[in-house]
Amino acid sequence: MPLATTTDLPYRSKFGNDRVDSTPRRWAGALVQYNEWHSSEKKAWADLSCEQVNLVVILGRHGGTCGPRFSLKRPMPADRNDPGFFFWIPANLTVYGFSEEARMIRELQVRFDAERLMPILGDEIFGGKLHMPTPSIYDDRVAKCASMLADCCIDGQDEDQLFGECLITSLLAAAVQNITGKVSGRQVSGLVPWQLRIAKEYLHEHLVGEVSLEEVAGLTKLSLSRFARGFKASTGLPPYKWLLKERIRRAQAIMAATETPIADIAVMVGFADQSHFTKAFRRVTGTTPRYWRTDRQR
């Protein structure tokens, strides 16, 4: 899916950027935007502040250097400047994304209302530091989640809703823990029986169609983060992987019992098309649906 220039994120000011190619998605109430900034100028910058909290992750860079600045005239001290860092911008606080000699920068921005943190992270929120902007922070978990979210933005598959919400939850939890220097003292435990039962019932009922982590977590009276950790502790799998395996299992049952075309089965079990179904099937089983069916018939 090619990137399209968009105005979904109106920057208050910018300089030296020839264009910004962007693809936006929404998960868990957050606006997620993968951006590619292109510049032919020696220096370029953009005011990244807005009326929401903005979490910016630098995924890649061609040439030069880049990073956040509180003032255009004063660079922030940094021990390193390779891609993979993030910085946190509270609502309505001016922080500039500044680059020198960088021809192209790949980044992910996650914008959300501050009150959204409570249903996502629950009691894992740790107070006042979240109201202050941060310098560059490196964390492998944040970088990995951001990279996968960028791939989801580019691929644009609707059935990645649950996957995207799980990634948003993990990314925000990791970022907040880095900013505050604290981790939750709560021991990871599984869901109680009624919570696990109602979660599985919901996921089975929504095997085809849109699945919302926020909705199923609400049914269990837990924050998104607490539910995702509890579900994995109970089943051994994150919610999106559990749902994916259930979809593949249903597809296998249909393929074994009928001659229904694979393209039709893909839609029947909740995939957008045969191509996406084949990729997911291979990830789970190690082979393609066509080969699996042929081998089964033998």
Fold and architecture overview:
There is one protein chain. The protein has about 300 residues and is of the alpha+beta class. The chain folds into three domains: about 170 residues, Sandwich (Jelly Rolls); about 45 residues; about 50 residues, Homeodomain-like (Arc Repressor Mutant, subunit A, Orthogonal Bundle), CATH 1.10.10.60. It is built from ten helices and ten strands. The strands form two sheets. It has a six-stranded antiparallel β-sheet. Strands 1-4-8-6 form a four-stranded antiparallel β-sheet, with no helix packed on it. Strand 2 and strand 3 form a beta hairpin. Helix 5 packs across helix 6.
Structure described in brief:
This protein is an alpha+beta fold and 298 residues long. It is built from ten helices and ten strands. The protein is globular, with a radius of gyration of 21 Å.
